[in-house]
Amino acid sequence: QVQLVESGGGSVQAGGSLRLSCAASIYPFTAYCMGWFRQAPGKEREGVAYIATDGSTRYLDSVKGRFTISKDNAKNILYLQMNSLKPEDTAMYYCAAARHIYCHGLVYSDFPYWGQGTQVTVSS
Questions:
Q1: With CB atoms 3.0 to 4.6 Å apart as the test, which of 34, 76, 91, 106 could cross-link to 110 if both were Cys?
Q2: Alpha-carbon gap, residue 123 to 17, rounded angstroms
Q3: CA 99-29-48 angle, 5° bins
Q4: So what's the pLDDT on residue 10?
């Protein structure tokens, strides 16, 4: 059964850090493009970070240098380390999976598997 469960969200002051985790019950975990998406009230869902089957990554321009996506293939866990958080990072964060070799060109509608989300709130 496919299941993605996020954790690690919460409230933090601007400049602080959070690490999000996504426990993925998918097999083989290494065959999937994994992504983190976020959606703030009144805004479209946007891709924050992606990691491909070979470990290559890409990021939303506004989070480059601040966020790091990684995965533990042995434990089937996806991570998003978020540093130097800003109020504009406030959103519901979702992990998602798509069985593609590469992540390049994929948008949220290409991901069939989603978690329930975890809220991140950054205060100024």
A1: 106
A2: 12
A3: 65
A4: 98
Residue 105 burial (C-beta neighbours within 10 Å; 0-12, 13-18, 19+) = exposed
The residue to which tokens 């890409």 are assigned = 58
Residues with Cβ within 8 Å of residue 10, at least 6 apart in sequence:
18, 119, 120, 121
**Residue 1's pLDDT is what?**
74
Q: Residue 15 pLDDT more than 90?
A: yes
- Joined together, the tokens standing for residue 85 give 């958080």
Give the residue carrying structure tokens 């069985």.
Answer: 99
Kindly report, residue by residue over 83-118, the tens digit of the pLDDT.
999 999 999 999 999 999 899 889 889 999 999 999
